[in-house]
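Design job #97: recover the sequence.
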């Protein structure tokens, strides 16, 4: 069975370079960074749900989830230390995208979350123009989703 979301996965592979696969270490740190972003201001039910969906949709093993949990629970790592292991440029862009989705999942990104996203973007080494484009991309997808609801 083909899901509508599967159709969206096809498009990027034709219009952008195919990104490299994440190493296990990158995936552990990617997931740990998302969890750390979610912890800012307390983990909401929406953020928890997004995290569970993220793991499920990508087929991430429980071993990876447990390693990322141990990483943030047993160490006092800075944002810089967390993202330093993510070397693939496309993965850095995707990390900002996913962090923004997680922050906005409850309909409002507060000042503390915006500051965390800005800090994350800088730590990832993304230019301000790239950051704005990533934020706009997610905002546009949300707007399109609202438009689609009105089509039915």
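Job complete. Output follows.
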């Amino acid at each position: 069975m083909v899901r509508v979301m599967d159709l969206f996965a096809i498009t990027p592979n034709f219009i952008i370079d195919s990104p490299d696969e994440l190493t296990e270490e990158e995936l552990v740190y990617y997931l740990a960074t998302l969890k750390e972003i979610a912890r800012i201001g307390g983990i909401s039910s929406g953020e928890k749900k997004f995290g569970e969906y993220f793991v499920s949709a990508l087929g991430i093993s429980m071993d990876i989830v447990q390693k990322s949990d141990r990483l943030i629970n047993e160490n006092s790592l800075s944002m810089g230390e967390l993202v330093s292991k993510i070397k693939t440029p496309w993965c850095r862009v995707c990390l900002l995208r996913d962090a923004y989705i997680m922050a906005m999942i409850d309909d409002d990104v507060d000042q503390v979350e915006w500051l965390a996203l800005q800090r994350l973007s800088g730590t990832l080494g993304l230019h301000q123009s790239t950051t704005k484009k990533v934020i706009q991309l997610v905002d546009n997808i949300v707007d399109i989703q609202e438009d689609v609801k009105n089509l039915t």
